[in-house]
Amino acid sequence: VTYELKRSNNIRINANYTLQYAEGTTGLPRTTVVSLIQAGYPNIKMLYPINDDRRHEFKLQLDFRYFGGKDYNGPTTKRVVKDKATGEDRSQVINWLQNFGVNITGVAQSGRPYTKYFSNTQKTIVGSFNGARLPWVFRVDMNIDKTYNIKVGKKVTQLNLFARISNVLNIKNVAEVFGVTGDPDDNGYLTDPETQTIIANQLDENSFRDYYMMYLNNYEYNYQRPRMVYLGVTYTF
User: Looking at residue 29, what is its pLDDT?
Assistant: First the structure.
């Protein structure tokens, strides 16, 4: 479902909602197929949600822009300059925000599916393949740009300065979780009853626990990127 407000008074709005059912039988890794068989599934040729199955997505895009020339309707100031041809003073209007725009995109997505497992040592599926869901994802991105017309000889070239900011609100969105715990920060290995003997048999149990906690604390792959700012220049001639 899409709603579009064509540009009116410098503003253009586009909003849409997507409902998706993405299921399939292919692309299962070998370990998952083995787990399905061990879990007693009589037929692995069943439809399951694939990894990219986002059931709901809401997207809103707002574009605010001042154009140049006779279409400019933004703030202006006047100053007195000397005419090079006549030497007389004349009034000059400065269009400060000519060819300037801001584009904001907000996205809300329901969580992708993942598979829950019984323990770290037994990869037995709990429930069904991809039967659990990650948390919702919320993100706001922004683009700011301004174009300058530069005359080179008889030709007019364009210099565009832009700033692109992803995840403006710096939201800590979950990208993946550990299948045993459903937690992005803890895989449950240190507290799993089935791994306590393995941990106790390490050369130094306390050191092993400390280093493993350090590993978990530095494991950043389960989160989407924080706020990122990109600055750039394009020149068209």
Answer: 56
The residue range of the domain holding 111 is 2-185+222-236
pTM higher than the cut 0.90: no
Would you say residue 215 lies in a domain? no
For residue 101, give both structure tokens. 């725009």
Task: Convert the pLDDT of each residue in 53-69 to its tens digit.
Answer: 999 999 999 999 999 98
Establish if 54 belongs to a structural domain: yes
Radius of gyration of the chain (CA): 28
Number of separate domains in the chain: 1
Instruction: Please say whether the dihedral angle defined by the alpha carbons of residues 24, 29, 35 and 37, taken in this order, is positive or negative.
Output: positive
Q: Which amino acid is at 153?
A: G
Distances from the Cα of 151 to the Cα of 21, 145, 154, 158, 236, angstroms: 53, 20, 7, 9, 12
Residue 106, domain member (yes or no): yes
